């Protein structure tokens, strides 16, 4: 018989313990490391057993588009970590975002979302949903009155990410959840930047939480993945059927990589976060750096809110290099350890220039509205020694 890890009481276990053991179901071989079930389907001892499986009378797997034992371990570990009743993994973070929205929306519905969002999330909200008769209103997420004013009787979903990409703005999740619930709408939180360790959106009132597991959860630049976390009711009423019938399924191989990634998530986030805080302070002391944004620094516009709803400032630091685009490019090109990339949440420190990459499609006015100036760069801090990162930044700033 397969044996399952049963936590004594998940609410009393620390996240570090759940990251290692949560969701583990061992095969009869009793393997130490989670088994990788790289299979499309399953076989049955007889036709009656197959019928029972299809009727749902016998719990078990039918086809890996609907569920797979390795994927199920990853989902359960994520659910325990976030304090959710249920989780469903997807092929990418965007598949998770898309599924969390489309599984419940229909023509005539309305969505309110914060303007500062990961680029592809804005595509879905602004370009795709309206094609199917779903209207979206984008608001300044830090302005609670704007959320209230945007809500309509047909508003079904409020959507936000916090801290936001790339300006690390903090949105008051609890306050927005209260406004959403007063309207009878659900709040979906994209919790990628905070990671499952530094912010608990369900405790703040979120109804659905989504992740790109591509980021810190893998954290080693290998594979894409996503997760939707919610109540069991939401899965039964909306998500399960959507995923089953439309098929944005994660490969069991990728789910296995992500399971192994979770085991070291705590150590990696702790290290990267501590280096990020060090780098933020070092950057603030540099005359060629015009502005530093780090949620736990006292000069962050929402430092108090950040400390209220997060347990750490995170692994990203955003700053403005003097000299606009030219200054930012000179700085980026002079870096020797930190690499230029559009990705984040990796063991390697990565620098992004949003104005020419992730936010390049927006007009200069729209970028200004989002606080993305031409000198602004986003640094995703990795696992290198912090002294080497500080030296790299100090020497590269000389080129500005
Ligand atoms: C990366 C990212 C996504 C999309 O995830 P993919 O795995 O790349 O599809 C969504 N939201 C945020 C905040 C992200 O950083």
TrEMBL record:
GO terms for biological process: 'de novo' L-methionine biosynthetic process; homocysteine biosynthetic process; transsulfuration. It catalyses: O-succinyl-L-homoserine + hydrogen sulfide = L-homocysteine + succinate. The modification N6-(pyridoxal phosphate)lysine is found at residue 215. Keywords: Amino-acid biosynthesis, Methionine biosynthesis, Pyridoxal phosphate, Transferase. Pfam families: Cys_Met_Meta_PP. InterPro entries: Cys/Met-Metab_PyrdxlP-dep_enz, O-succ-hSer_sulfhydrylase, PyrdxlP-dep_Trfase, PyrdxlP-dep_Trfase_major, PyrdxlP-dep_Trfase_small. It is an enzyme of class 2 (transferase). Pathway: Amino-acid biosynthesis; L-methionine biosynthesis via de novo pathway; L-homocysteine from O-succinyl-L-homoserine: step 1/1. One of its GO terms (cellular component) is cytoplasm. Its cofactor is pyridoxal 5'-phosphate. Its EC number is 2.5.1.-. Residues 1-26 are annotated as: Disordered. GO terms for molecular function: carbon-sulfur lyase activity; pyridoxal phosphate binding; transferase activity, transferring alkyl or aryl (other than methyl) groups. Belongs to the trans-sulfuration enzymes family. MetZ subfamily. Catalyzes the formation of L-homocysteine from O-succinyl-L-homoserine (OSHS) and hydrogen sulfide. Homotetramer. PANTHER family: CYSTATHIONINE GAMMA-LYASE, TRANS-SULFURATION ENZYME FAMILY MEMBER. This is O-succinylhomoserine sulfhydrylase. It comes from Azorhizobium caulinodans (strain ATCC 43989 / DSM 5975 / JCM 20966 / LMG 6465 / NBRC 14845 / NCIMB 13405 / ORS 571). The gene is metZ.
């Amino acid at each position: 018989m397969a044996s399952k890890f049963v936590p004594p009481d998940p609410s009393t276990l620390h996240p570090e313990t759940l990251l290692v053991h949560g969701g583990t179901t061992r095969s009869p071989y009793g393997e130490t490391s989670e088994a990788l079930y790289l299979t499309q389907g399953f076989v049955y001892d007889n036709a009656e057993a197959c019928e029972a499986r299809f009727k749902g009378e016998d719990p078990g797997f039918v086809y890996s588009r609907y569920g797979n034992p390795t994927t199920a371990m990853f989902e359960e570990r994520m659910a325990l970590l976030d304090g959710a009743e249920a989780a469903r993994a997807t092929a990418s973070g965007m598949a998770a975002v898309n599924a969390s929205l489309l599984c419940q929306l229909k023509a005539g519905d309305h969505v309110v979302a914060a303007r500062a969002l990961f680029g592809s999330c804005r595509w879905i909200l602004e370009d795709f949903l309206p094609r199917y008769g779903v209207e979206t209103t984008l608001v300044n997420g830090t302005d609670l009155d704007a959320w209230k004013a945007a809500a309509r009787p047909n508003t079904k979903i409020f959507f936000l990410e916090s801290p936001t990409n790339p300006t690390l703005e903090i949105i008051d999740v609890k306050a927005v959840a209260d406004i959403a619930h007063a309207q009878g709408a659900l709040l979906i939180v994209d919790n990628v930047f905070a990671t499952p360790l530094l912010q608990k959106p369900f405790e703040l009132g979120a109804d659905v939480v989504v992740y790109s597991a591509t980021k810190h959860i893998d954290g080693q630049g290998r594979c894409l993945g996503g997760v939707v976390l919610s109540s069991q009711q939401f899965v039964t009423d909306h998500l399960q059927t959507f995923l089953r019938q439309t098929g944005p399924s994660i490969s069991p191989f990728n789910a296995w990589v992500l399971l192994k990634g979770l085991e070291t998530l705590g150590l990696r986030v702790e290290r990267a976060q501590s280096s990020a805080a060090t780098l933020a302070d070092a950057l603030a002391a540099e005359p060629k750096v015009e502005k530093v944004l780090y949620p736990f620094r006292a000069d962050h516009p929402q430092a108090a809110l950040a400390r209220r709803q997060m347990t750490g400032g995170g692994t990203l630091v955003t700053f403005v290099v003097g000299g606009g685009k030219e200054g930012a490019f000179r700085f980026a090109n002079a870096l020797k350890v930190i690499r230029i990339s559009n990705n984040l949440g990796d063991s390697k420190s990565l620098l992004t220039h949003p104005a020419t990459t992730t936010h390049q499609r927006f007009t200069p006015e729209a970028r200004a509205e989002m606080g993305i100036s031409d000198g602004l760069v986003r640094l995703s801090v990795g696992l290198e020694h912090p002294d080497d990162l500080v030296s790299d930044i100090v020497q590269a700033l000389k080129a500005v």
